[in-house]
Amino acid sequence: MAERIEQRLEDRVPELEQLERVGLFTRKEVRAVLRKASALEYKIQRRALRKEDFINYIQYEVNLLELIKKRRARIGYSFKKDEIENSILHRVHCLFKRATGKWKEDIQLWLSHVAFCKQWNAKHELSKVFSSLLAIHPNKPALWIMAAKWEMETRLSSESARHLFLRALRFHPECPKLYQEYFRMELMNAEKQRKEKKAFEQAKMDLGEFSYPEEILNGEMARIIYRDAAQKIKGAEFHLAVLSIAKLFDFTEDLQKEILESLQTKYADDPLTWDYMARRELEMGPKQAAEQTTKQMKITEMTQREERCCAVFEEAVGALPTEDMWKCYITFCLERYNRKTNSQELKRKRLERTLSVFSKTHESNLLPEALYKQWLQLLLESSQFEKATEVAAAATTRFSQSVETWQMRLQVLIQLKSDAVTQCFEEAVKHVKSQGALPLWTLWVEWSEGTNSKEDTEALYKRSLQATTPAESATMKEMYLDWTYRNGGYKKVKKVFTSLCENRPFSLDFFKKMIQIEKEQESCKMLHLREYYERALREFGSTGSDLWLDYIKEELKHPQGKPENCGSIHWRAMKMLQGDLVEDFVSKYTLLQTGHL
């Protein structure tokens, strides 16, 4: 091993000598590089190899390359790159090869090598990296797409990119994304060849041996890919994806028409098809010269286009009255309403249209639960408070066991300062199961704190402890303790704490809150703090390493503390803590003893 390391270090000598000779590094810096390289080499020559050692070595070499680049720019020296940079680049590639050979499954390691090759323009090396990567991970379509894109966009090789896509499709014959990117690549190739041919023609140059077949120029290869994919991949989503790609190219009118006809024929009952056909109306309309168009004409034209969209959507929900179809319609209306416009008339029409569609969907019993919130928001923004109250009530009738829907209704009533809030809370906790009802109880007590008397609020807190599940009652105990201190003072909170300690479970924050309250008192008693810490440790002693440390700190720092107790507390902590927490506790305790914590 030592001989191998010596040989590797000797191989570095020529590049380091060059660095010193041309003035990029000083002799001292060269020696430092050699020392660091030696340490890194020893780490990657051990029997038990670690991935982190390879990553650190690679990162060091990359940093070295960056430093050389900056030094070159500073002194304006650009020679001897073969002897310096290329030697380092070769070493980094070798390190990556060893690492990816050892940890073949680590995709991130492979991608780091790819990124390095791209950064340093190592095209030949990158081809080999992609070849090895795809041989080991042929099951990942994204890697095939990445390799094909690089061949097409960087190496300008449509043949290599096509070859990769065809190989990828043998592994993934029904992958929509692969077909989409293959389709895009062929259209990009057609566009590139069209531009080349046009440039030749404009220059009146003889095309000679260059041939530009019409079928390639017209995107026939993309059409073949689409037809093949359409037989294997079902659903409107794929058709719409390739259609959106085709629309990026100005020579694909016939291809777009074919895709659209296929979409309407095969997937007439798909909401996505109707959604596309409706939104298409936004793009269609008379083309007017910019100088002849007034602001009012633009608004009128946009209003007409949106009305045409809605006419298609109305036809759609008539032909396909499903939740998904109505959702598409509402989503469109919300998008248009949220678009900025200076026209108050257009804004008003969009709001009316959106609210009308919400109402129709609700009447059809097809409005999803999540959309009721947006409906209510619109009603409140437009000051339709009575309607908002009705809609909120209707939502809880339809989704009577949903905590979120009851919360939404209650928030509306609270916002409107309604007299029916208490009645609604009672109704909510009656319908919703106790498990999961915590958000309702927290909302109720928070509302009561600002509205009802202290007696009523305390009664509500006590009631919540019985009504919620044991796990959720721990949160209510914490809230009750905090409210009692704010409204009843120290003596009252001590009584409540003692009372609440009679029934498990507790949260750690429950005890921390009481400890904090005690520490805020002018006459803070260590006796009380010990009681709270001991209670907390009975519940959380096996998992709360920081709790033990805080207890020890109190004994050390409190005027009434007993530093002699710290030894026994430490001994108990070591016995109770589990797993890695023991090590964590020991390291923090050491820092505490040395005054660094």
TrEMBL record:
InterPro entries cross-referenced by the UniProt entry: HAT, TPR-like_helical_dom_sf, Utp6, UTP6_C, UTP6_N
Gene3D superfamilies found in the cross-reference section? Tetratricopeptide repeat domain (1.25.40.10)
GO BP, sorted A to Z? maturation of SSU-rRNA from tricistronic rRNA transcript (SSU-rRNA, 5.8S rRNA, LSU-rRNA)
> Where is this protein localized, as stated in its record?
Nucleus, Nucleolus
Residues spanning the signal sequence = none
Q: GO: which molecular function terms?
A: snoRNA binding
Looking at the record, the residues that make up the U3 small nucleolar RNA-associated protein 6 N-terminal domain are 9-91
Has keyword Phosphoprotein? no
Q: Which UniProt keywords apply?
A: Nucleus, Repeat, rRNA processing
Q: Residue ranges of the U3 small nucleolar RNA-associated protein 6 homolog C-terminal domain? A: 307-577
Major localization class: nucleus
Q: Which family does it belong to?
A: Belongs to the UTP6 family.
Q: What is this protein called?
A: UTP6 small subunit processome component
Q: What taxonomic ancestry is recorded?
A: Eukaryota, Metazoa, Chordata, Craniata, Vertebrata
